[in-house]
Automatic annotation (TrEMBL):
Belongs to the aldehyde dehydrogenase family. One of its GO terms (molecular function) is succinate-semialdehyde dehydrogenase (NAD+) activity. This is Aldehyde dehydrogenase family protein. InterPro entries: Ald_DH/histidinol_DH, Ald_DH_C, Ald_DH_CS_CYS, Ald_DH_N, Aldehyde_DH_dom, ALDH_GabD1-like, GABD/Sad-like. Residues 3-454 form the Aldehyde dehydrogenase domain. Keywords: NADP, Oxidoreductase. It comes from the Bacteria. PROSITE patterns: ALDEHYDE_DEHYDR_CYS (PS00070). Coiled coil: none annotated. It comes from Pedobacter petrophilus. Gene3D superfamilies: Aldehyde Dehydrogenase, Chain A, domain 1, Aldehyde Dehydrogenase, Chain A, domain 2.
Length: 457
């Protein structure tokens, strides 16, 4: 069986990869486990020095890596470079802070001495998606290897070139060999990987469906999982918001990575009295984005990652319109010719409960505008979702905004007057159908360690 990378600009096959034989997969896991036997004994200074070498390599290779993303999943070059630089920043963050986060913690008890020690657990399997092919992997990888774990990666089938480039970076940084291995495998091969006795835990970023399957397999074997799944990011716009600024931020937040981001803004819940004015600014900001070949320097929006994902998105748009929504921008597959995955930025208004764009995640450049009677109604609508990843509120009343962000919105991250974004120092993850566990920050590095109690009489 082979795995293909396909250019979403024209449908051409970029490269085909021979899938690893099950024996090879086994061998890679065994080698990673073998590497862990000595790697776990290394100190934080040793691990940090290699993480900092990765920082240098990422910065040196950022242009070629960005080009690889453009070819394999359509990300514009500028955004690709920014993604690689962000990967360098998460490596630097854990190289600098990992030792502090994992230092022993003394606890006063009736013991002569008692403390908490954070011990590595071994091989962690990372199942990662195509939307941020480098960032999703490095935000797992940097804390995992700083904590003394080793990793095997099952990357999304369409970005195998990126997956192998990551393996090469870790190798070239001079880490112990086999500390990080890429499996050239489709998802069918992964149940066996999860079941391998040396695989101790699994982290998955992707769809809720994939998360359910993987968590079920791992759960049956009592293996820990961290799941970072979908979202239906509600953005509330209150009457006193700076509407022009809010609309600009909302358009950026909807169109990040061409809308293919778990934390992208998806539902815009606007109080009635400013809905018309906000929507006018919002439409102008969405329409201003330049779509084109991701390899052109001035392109802001490339194609979506795959033709079938674009087709599914278009179906969702058509169904929502049939359910009574109004399309005020886009809603069409552009007539560029050829087998491309482009989609126009689209705005649907009059979106209501029971319509597809209200109830489901929309993973592409399509915004749903929902009308709310007042702030309380807006909060209720925001929370009326099975997801709970990111949420935002726009208002000039910062006291009210903080209360809404802290106490009212049910999500893993709540932002005020800003689009939801990840930062190496801030924990990232969701609640409900958006998953569980946290990546990044101090909490992220504590997910895959044995939090060990040591009691000395
Ligand atoms: P998937 O969730 O299917 O893919 C994500 C990763 O999970 C890939 O590596 C995939 O491998 C793997 N995977 C899928 N099913 C299994 C399984 N049963 N066992 C092991 N691994 C598995 O996403 P899609 O690419 O199909 O995109 C579909 C939708 O998922 C999007 O429209 C979006 O809604 C959501 N999504 C959310 C993301 C997020 O950031 N939260 C990221 C990507 C998608 P393979 O590629 O080989 O199938």
């Amino acid at each position: 069986m082979s795995i293909s990378s396909i250019n979403p600009v024209n449908g051409e096959i970029i490269k085909e990869y021979q899938e690893d034989h099950p024996e090879t997969v086994n061998q890679k896991i065994n080698q990673a486990h073998e590497a862990w036997q000595s790697y776990r004994e290394t100190d934080f200074g040793y691990r940090a020095q290699f993480l900092l070498k990765i920082v240098d390599l990422l910065n040196e290779r950022k242009n070629e890596l960005a080009k690889l993303m453009s070819l394999e999943m359509g990300k514009p070059l500028k955004a690709g470079v920014a993604e690689v630089v962000k990967c360098a920043s998460v490596c630097e963050y854990y190289a600098k802070n990992g030792a502090t986060f994992l230092a022993d913690q003394k606890v006063e008890t009736d013991a002569g001495k008692s403390f908490i020690s954070f011990q590595p657990i071994g091989v962690v399997l990372a199942i990662m998606p195509w939307n941020f092919p480098f960032w999703q992997v490095f935000r797992f990888l940097a804390p995992a290897i700083m904590a003394g774990n080793v990793g095997v990666l099952k990357h999304a089938s369409g970005v195998m070139g990126c997956a192998l480039a990551i393996e090469k970076i870790v190798e070239d940084a001079g880490f112990h060999s086999n500390v990080f291995k890429t499996l050239v495998s489709g998802s069918k091969a992964i149940a066996e990987v999860i079941a391998h006795p040396f695989v101790k835990a699994v982290t998955l970023t992707g769809s809720t469906e994939a998360g359910k399957k993987v968590a079920e397999q791992a759960g049956r074997l009592i293996k820990k999982t961290v799941l970072e799944l979908g979202g239906s990011g509600p953005y509330i716009i209150l009457a006193d918001a700076d509407l022009a600024a809010a609309a600009k931020t909302c358009a950026e937040a909807r169109l990040i990575n061409n809308g293919q981001s778990c934390i992208a803004a998806k539902r815009f819940i606007v109080v009635k009295e400013v809905e018309e004015e906000f929507t006018r600014y919002f439409k102008a900001a969405m329409a201003a984005k330049k779509t084109g070949n991701p390899l052109d320097n001035d392109t802001e929006l490339g194609p979506m990652a795959r033709v079938e994902l674009r087709d599914e998105l278009h179906e969702q748009v058509l169904k929502t319109i049939a359910q009574g929504a109004t399309c005020i921008l886009g809603g069409k597959i552009p007539a560029f010719g050829g087998h491309h995955a482009f989609y126009q930025p689209t705005i649907l208004t009059n979106v209501k409960k029971g319509m597809l764009a209200y109830d489901e995640e929309i993973f592409g450049p399509v915004a749903a505008v929902i009308s709310a009677k007042d702030a309380d109604d807006a909060i209720n609508i925001a929370n009326d979702t099975p997801f709970g990843l990111g949420a935002a509120v726009f208002t000039q009343d910062l006291i009210l905004a903080e209360d809404i962000a802290r106490n009212k919105l049910q999500a893993g991250s709540c932002f005020v007057n800003e689009g939801v974004k990840s930062d190496p120092a801030l924990p990232f993850g969701g609640i409900n159908q958006s998953g569980y566990g946290r990546e990044l920050g101090m909490f992220g590095i504590h997910e895959f360690v044995n939090i060990k109690t040591v009691y000395i009489k």
